[in-house]
Amino acid sequence: MRIGELAEHVGIAEHVLRHWDAQGVVVADRSASGHRRYTDEHLRRVEVVRACQRIGMSLSQIRQVLHRGSADRTRVLYEQLHHLREQQRRLSRAEQFLTHVIGCRHDLISECDECSGFAQDPVGSPRVSGLRRPASRGVE
User: Fold this and answer.
1) 3-state secondary structure of 43
2) Which ranges constitute the DSSP H helices of the chain?
3) Are the C-beta atoms of residues 28 and 37 closer than 8 Å to each other?
4) pTM of the full predicted structure?
5) Per-residue confidence of the chain (140 residues) as pLDDT tens digits?
6) What are the beta bridge partners of residue 127?
């Protein structure tokens, strides 16, 4: 299938497929006239790439894990697994906090020792001057 057909089929823009091609993530076959051609294997790869993106992986990481023989594949996968487990811990802690606040008997949650305990224990979150700082994405 041609790039427009694949883009429409999976619901992404053609320029995204071109970018993925240029980055070596989903490299299209070429027709004799130079047009990108996609097979069912390319479609499956696009679906895998999108699944990896949904769990927070970058294109660079995805490129490293697509092939079993990639040198850093295992490291990247373990790092992503660690990241997901940290997110699960933070979400679980947030759920506990919210569940407690729903039934908290204090007029102000700042007066509640248990609520304050949640606030003082932001699992995995850096603190600056007593305030939580948003997680850095490598851009300062």
Assistant:
1) helix
2) 3-10, 14-22, 40-54, 59-65, 73-103, 113-119
3) yes
4) 0.70
5) 999 999 999 999 999 999 999 999 999 999 999 999 999 999 999 999 999 999 999 999 999 998 888 889 999 999 999 999 999 999 999 999 999 889 888 888 888 888 888 777 655 444 433 444 444 444 43
6) 132
